[in-house]
Design goal:
Length: about 350
Amino acid sequence: MRKLFGRLALAALLGVPLTGLLPLTASADSLSVNFENPPYTTGSINGQDGWTSTGSVGSGCAVYDHKVATNTYGYATFGKQSLRISDAITSGCFGDQTFAKPLVNAVGETTATAGTFSVGARQNHFETQFDIASTMPTQQVGMHVSVSPDRGDGSRMSYLRFEDGLTGINVFFDDVQGTANPANFVETQVATGLSRTVPHKIKLTMDVIDGPSNDVVKVYIDGGLVHTGTSWENYYRYDSEAAAEQSPRIVKTVLFRSSGTAHPANAGKGFLFDNFSQMSGPILVGPPTNKDQCKNGGWKTFNNPVFKNQGECIRFVENHHDKDDKDKHNHGDNNNHDHGQDHNHNKNHNNKHD
Ligand SMILES: [Ca+2]
Ligand SMILES: [Ca+2]
């Protein structure tokens, strides 16, 4: 992990959240969007199926080049339409950029504030996943866009930035480390030179846990975990820039944002986003890795997956884990071996739950 920017430079790049009002639309706890027709039509996504992008229709700081576009790019998994975003036009504003249809049940620790937005049934786990691809096989100089879990007004709780580099798409992750004021934003490059000619699957998960310095954010690219970091909770808790609302923020949508230096040559091009999803729910517990974790009511503590009873939990472990163990430890004395192992794990189990 390395710090690429001084804090002021980074703050200028990232900007500061603005308070804004956005209409909320009823939705479920999870949302999957492929931008196909129906209901999506080409042109601005503002007002389509609960998405907002008021700038892109001329009602914001700038008319961003964020549009539902016909897929003429040959990506089979993208269907006939995708969300296309370029950095031809940028601004330092937030509430007028592109936001996914918000979830009903927001994610936030107990003290996370909602501003003008509704919370629903508060959850502590957020996930978003989407595919990104380039509209061009060659570099679009300067092309960049950021994607952030947000409550709907630019109160970002995490941050990914995609940049078109010399060798392909570069991906950066920013989190806030420590409790300093001003906040210590740390940028980490989590991917370098992703191919411009195939889509890439991006996934970000966020566990928010009561108290400072403990949220867990994970970034996956093309199925592999590339980084584990934390959220921006401590920026909102400790940085005097956030004095007007000195608390972490809820998350219920994803912000796609064009800020920083504009590159007009990228107009009508940029990156495609498709197969988007987001969800809120409880922090995942499991899967169990030892049968004794299922015993003494332990099966009830798992939600990944959920078990109906102890037997189902034990069968799951037998099918997913013990086979590996036996292969690894098959010395012909399985009975004794398993017995000793069970004993140890039982102790661990009790310690954890007492
Ligand atoms: Ca599509
Ligand atoms: Ca926390």
